[in-house]
Structure formats: C-alpha cells, structure tokens
From TrEMBL:
Protein's organism: Pseudorhizobium tarimense
Gene Ontology molecular function: transferase activity
Family matches, as PROSITE patterns: PLD (PS50035)
Protein name in the entry: Cardiolipin synthase
PLD phosphodiesterase domain span: 217-244, 396-423
Amino acid sequence: MLIEPYWPHVLFVLSLLLGATAAIHAAMTKEEVRSAIGWVGIIILSPIIGALLYFIAGINRIRRSAISDRRFMLGHVRDHFEAYDATNGMVAERFGERYAAMKVLGDRVTEHDITTGNSIDLLTTGDDAYRAMLTAIDEAERSILLETYIFDRDRVGQRFVEALTGAARRGVAVRVLVDAVGARYSVPSVLGMLRDGGVTVDVFNGKVIMGLRLPYANLRTHRKILVVDGRTAFTGGINIREGFSGELFGTDCAVDTHFRIRGPIIANLFAIAAADWRFTTGEDLLGEPWQIVPPASEPGEPVAIRAVASGPDRSVETNHKMLMGAFSVAGRSIRIMSPYFLPDRELITALITAARRGVEVDVVVPEANNLTLVDRAMTGQFDQLLKNYCRIWRAPGAFNHSKLMAIDGRWAFVGSSNLDPRSLRLNFEVDLEVMDVSFAKELERRIDIAISSSTQVTLERLQQRPFPARLLDRVLWLGSPYL
C-alpha cells in the first residue's frame, strides 16, 4: 500500500494532534491543579493511549442546553409557591445565625430556594418504599415522571412495569427515564417491557459506546425521583431492584432509606427530572397533566426543604459546596451514614477541623460492602480521620445503602449522593437539604442505633493488619477517583 512506508510519520502526526488537543483541553478546563497535572502527564507519556483515556474518563463536564432547562421548567411550575420561600430572618430565628448562613450559601450555589410548608416521611426499608411508590402510581390520575439509575427486570421491576403500564392504559401521562448504564444491569433490559406496555421511556446519556457521547460515557444520572400528579414525590437512595426487598430476597436483602415528600418542594424535584427528560428527548413536560398542585399547608409551616441538584454541568460540585458549608457551621455534632465513604482532601480537612473544634464527628459505614475495591480504598484513608479526633464505625448485618447526614440535630442532608468522587464530581445527583429539628433528630436516632451495635475502627487495629493488606488498600485508594 502507498501509505505503508509512511505509517510511522502518520502515527507521529496522529499522536501529536491527539496529545496536544487532549493536553490543552485538560489544562484549560480542569479546576484542580493536581488533576490537570496528572492528566497532562499521562497524555505526554503516552500521547495516543493517554488522549483516548482522557476523552473517555477525563472529560467531566457536559455542555448541555439543559443548563437553563431547570429555570425554564421552574418558570412554569412555581407560580403559586413564592410565598413559601423561607427568608433569612425566619431561618435565623428558628435555627440560629449559623444556619441562616447555610441558607445564604444554598441560595448562591444551588438553583432552588429553600421552601416551607413541606412534609417528609422516612421509608426505612425497600419494601416500605416500593409499596408506597406503587400505591402512588396505582392512584395516579394525570401524570407520572420517574427518573432512576437502576431499573432491573426482576420481580420488583416487573411490579413497577405492571403499575406504570396500567397507568398508561388508563390515560395517565407516563414518562420514565433510566440511566443508559443502569438500564444494562439486567439483560435483556426492562425498557422493552415498558415500551410494549405503552410507556414512553428513554435512556439518559445513551450511545455511550459509539457516537458523539463517547467522551461522556463516565457521566451518569444517579438520581432517583418519582413525581405523581404533581402532588406527591419520592426521592432518596433506592433503586428499583429486588435485592432491596425483604419480602422477595429474604433476610440478606440490602437496606436503604427513601423519602416521600409533599409540598412546594415537589416543584423543584419535578423541574430537575423534567429538565433531564428535556435534555434526553427534547420534549417539554408542560400543560395540565404536569401542573404542580398547590400545597394545603400554610407558608412558614415546617418542614423547610431545598432540592440540591448537582452534576457535571454548571451545577458541578454543588453537593460538595453544601457539605463544606455544613461542616464549617457545625457546633455540636456531625453524624454521617454512607455506604461509600471516600471524601476528597477538602472534605476530610473540613471534618477534622470540625473535630478539632470539639464537634463530635461520627461516620458509620457497612461492615460488609457490596463493592470490595471501594471498601478497601475507604479503609486506606481511614487513618486520616482517626488521627484527628473523628470516629468511624463498622455496622454489622445486611449491606446498608442509605445516605444520611444530620448536624447539630437541626440540619440534615439526604438523597442520592455518596461521599465519594463519583457522586461529588461525575454523577448527576439530587439531594435534600432539610432544616427541621424533629427530622434531624430522627436521623440522629437512627444513626446512633446503628452505632450502638457497630464496631469502632481504631488506628491500632488498622496498623495491626499485615503490611501487604495495608499497601493494597493504599494502592486502591490512589485509584479512588475512578472507582
């Protein structure tokens, strides 16, 4: 072939173009100098392979028109709810100046106001959550909007398929958005069953192997949102799969916590999910079926809640910023329950600074984790907190997937975000900032019950482990941003 004598030159030019493009992009877009230096170094050492790795795993922002979609959607659903927005004075009077400062932070880093007049119910098992969600779907009269990460084609998934297809057949407007990766947890996926039943369904950030979305294959929606008739919403950490059902899976089922919500906060949750639907399909969810029902409660009544949407677009690290603020205002206690506890250096510094101020910092993680590599990486950085007055606890029993946080018995943060790099920088997440004493104290009570049966992790026990095991933990910890 004519090109054969010149293939080294072609390879050189290709490596130069790919390497230069990737290195320039990394230098111009990365906000952390360590991340930028790391990627540029990889690209220089291996221009072609390094550039390909960067295009697949290093581009952590989606430039999407849906950046303004939530504002667009909020303009159509918030007409009746401005009176429910909490004021700085109201928050200061009820919770103190520290938490008034948290309100200001949330106002400036999120796209949603903190609203009063809400109610929030804990659904403490998968069976409780699935039962409540299926009941709401069965009773739907106008509309159902569901966004989830995993929707398995198993016995729980089929119950949801039957409920959703039944709603569609009786004339309810139904939209289901499943992450493109999460949809592949079952083979074949559940999507065909939904479409055959008349449900309008799509996948978020699809075509992750071929086509123009390849650079964004690492960026997933991890959100779990269900809005029914603009009247009732559900969110939290639970996916749709039978592994969380004690009824179907037995005593070995995983544990999670979900939340049923009513009130003005539904407008914000709907706007988030509707924006993701618009980004995926181009369809605007407008009109009578999608109207949000004005709450029966009065403005100023409990509970004050803010929806915190974060993800690799303009809302990147919003959850991270909220956590940094919360750790800095904590005055008495920080209680955390997380299945995957891999905070970055900034969050670790905030936690240990709080502990050094005298704040009681307790972190509960599962004794048995479903992701071994993540668990080993977690263990590899425990010493950073234990050396600085923080306490870590290993909870026995079934794997607990709950993401719960309570601070000072006044402020809570719950939802889909794990305390790991993927949730804090790569995934699209949704969490709730809740200012309510009774709710925060209930979370504290649940975490304290878990602590009462847990084993405390100590530096002595960590250091007594064999050196090869400790070395492996640290090696896996080095790769934690990509686990």
